[in-house]
Amino acid sequence: MKKLLFLFILIHGFCFSQDLEESIYVAAETFMAQPSEATFQTLAKQEAQFKSQVKTKDEQLALVFLQSHKGHYLDTHSRLKDAIITYEDAVKRFNDYELSKLSDFDIIESCLIPLGNLYTKTNDYTNAESTIKQYSYLAKKNNKPQHEISGAINLAQLYYAIGRHETAIKLTSSFINYPNITSSQKQNLININAESQIALEIIPTSLDNKQNYKMAIQEGQYEKALTLFQKFKKKRLAIESLQKREIAQVYIEEAQIYLLNKNSNKALQSIQTALKTLIPNANFNNLPIKEQLYAENKFIDIFDLYSEIETNSDLALKSYDLSFYVSDLLKDTWTSQETIIYNQSNYRKRSEKCIAILYSAFQKTKDTTYILKAFEYSENSKVFTLKEMFQKKQRLQKHPTDSLLIQEFNLLKDQEHITSKLVLEQLDKNRASQITTLSKQLSDISLKIKSLKNAISDKYPGLENLISIKNLQNKLHEDNAVLVEYFYGKHAIYQFIISNSNIELNKIDNTDKTEKSIVDFISLFDNVSIINNDISNFSSQAFKLYKLLNFDAVSSFNKIIIIPDWWLNFIPFETLLKEETNTTAFSKMPFIVKSQNIIYNSSAYFYTTDNNSKSNNNLLGFFPVFKNSNKTLTYSIDEANAIKKEMASKMLMNKEATKANFLKNASNYGMLHLSTHSSHGVSGKPANIDFYDETLYLNELYSLNLNPNLVVLSACETGKGKLYKAEDAMSIARGFQYSGARNLLFSLWQINDLSTSKIMQSFYENYSDTQSAHYSNQLSKLAYLENESISNTKKSPYYWGAFVYYGELTKPITSSYLFYVIISALIILIIVFLRTKFKKPHG
Hints:
Elements: H1 2-33, H2 37-53, H3 57-76, H4 80-96, H5 107-121, H6 125-141, H7 145-161, H8 165-175, H9 183-199, H10 209-218, H11 222-237, H12 244-260, H13 264-278, H14 297-309, H15 313-331, H16 337-365, H17 369-380, H18 384-398, H19 403-425, H20 432-459, H21 469-479, E1 481-488, E2 492-498, E3 503-509, H22 512-523, H23 529-533, H24 535-548, E4 559-563, E5 597-600, H25 604-608, E6 619-623, H26 636-646, E7 649-653, H27 659-665, E8 671-675, E9 678-679, E10 688-690, E11 695-697, H28 698-702, E12 710-714, E13 722-724, E14 728-730, H29 732-739, E15 744-747, H30 753-770, H31 773-786, H32 797-800, E16 803-806, H33 815-837
Parallel strand pairs: 1-4, 4-5, 6-7, 6-8, 8-12, 12-15
Antiparallel strand pairs: 1-2, 2-3, 9-10, 10-11, 13-14, 15-16
Helix pairs in contact: 1-2, 1-3, 2-3, 3-4, 3-5, 4-5, 5-6, 5-7, 6-7, 6-20, 7-8, 7-9, 8-9, 9-10, 10-11, 11-12, 12-13, 12-14, 13-14, 14-15, 15-16, 16-17, 19-20, 22-24, 26-30, 30-31
């Protein structure tokens, strides 16, 4: 009887399984036969039911088949975010259940290629590159040349989109004559190659209509470009399979050419056609409302272009704000800081245009609300990824037991750890297999982070980057300081000066001469001899730059918080001269450092936000020294001994100063001091810092959670790195900021071992007395300049000006101040005692 019952259950279960599998295929095929919104809604409901029922691998494969068609429908109907979610789920299902072993279902063609393209469409460049590389490797491994070529085309398009034109040219050139390539694939590669060459101002050998009109634009022949474009447009729109966004792109390009021909009316007509194409059933006059928009990067092109045409400043700003809104919709789907950094460049260009409009409006009206709005644009465009990570850490500190936040933070750490490994692996061209594995791990982590986003955003309010001017001015009043924030744009450098009672906005035209003055001054510190070989040239440039950057506008303030930008990140403001001088004695020059205390920060947001200090203020020092090598740091030992005299510290010297010891112990100390070698990164390598046995790379710092009170980087170029608009230098110092350090002392150039040792000894002598890093930094430089045992040659600002302090202002506690406090307290106690003793009794 039991055998019969078991047989019945087995047969019934098998039939049910077959029925479910067949039901999934039937549902998919029914939808494919008549795709419409009504049949799609039915399919979506069926999919939700199937997800809760599928068990076998055959059923899972059927569901992947259904999802691939659902994703295609969503993609073609501009529901990109939902399409991405659907394809991601299908790919994960296919991989998790190892369905490639069950069937020859073409996951590359059905899901991976469209998913990679969708990432590109939504500006998610990190996931796009990762996905395309994954299926390209898979195609090569499985001998599918057509998919491998498709991967090359899509990857080249991605590189073109993010401005890596040389990489795009190299990639397309290697595939143009690939075996089994189709004529259309070859033409695609030729087109991308040609457009990349045009972007680099190289004249391609072969051009089609599209490249011809782009070449005409580059040559300034706008009428010719319009004629050539109309031929291209007719041919392009004749293609019946074009998606809405591809049609919209044609009209966007047409509007751009009309604008070049100074035909604003025609340009606006083309823009309206592009908008109507993307939002076919919406009603609006000039601009749609936010509720009508969705995550589609073509909207950004449209609104940015509309703003350039619009002469009404309010409407232009409204259109730019719609661009920012769509950018935020896209940003909601991104998970890596690399993707955000890539996109911040366009964010910055738009911010500059908004600030320019507001500056012009202020000049006409003198209404300071325009300055406040301009400052908001400036702040929102600064170090977004640093601010976002800081806020996530703050949120976790407030809710330390929340499993969602803990999981999110651990995933972000894993993401950066794998990214670091991937960056290094990509330097070796023979590591394709390992690169693919790491890329897949990144994709998996990205999916997990996305799955947490909605739950976290439902539970907690969104992260805010805005700062209150009132709070900022109150803080400046408390610190008796002034804030100078620079926004370094393509056409102008804007300077915001904010005191406790006033706010100013100044404009510095960014001409070739301006840029040269700034870059030339930075170059003075490229090596030890430049300044000393021509001291008068240095003093002339130092004063001219002081005037150029309008720094005399804050000459009456003692403490100045500087928010630098772009090239200004590498300017040591302390070394600028407040007056013209003919002296060649550096100790007598009117350096800013002599009369003003300079404190830097990455954003006014960080200045106004309280720092969660560690109660433990013990110092952990790393001094590899590198004895008996060409890297020996002889005076590093003196530096360590001097610190030990002044601070409660643990010093890891020589062989103890390992990378492993740093990773293990750094988070347990309130202060970190690294006296070693560092590099801003060369030949594709990111910025890095040396320990005795190994090198620590920038992305590895991103994966740490340190949160020290102070980090001192006594090493070369710790503040230098590849520059990105809005995120500034990808330096070792930035890595420590990302890991949680709010207060840092670091260097801007290759520093001298002996002078660094002297500066550091002086810094810690003052710090042990004052407990104020910004004040000690100034005092150490003054002490160096006033030291009579140091020759004039060694008093060049090259030797003492490299170290800059980023962080909070801490009121110095001096010995005399402590004495005053103690005496005052004693006097008060004596008075209270005497009053109590001689007080008349009641009655």
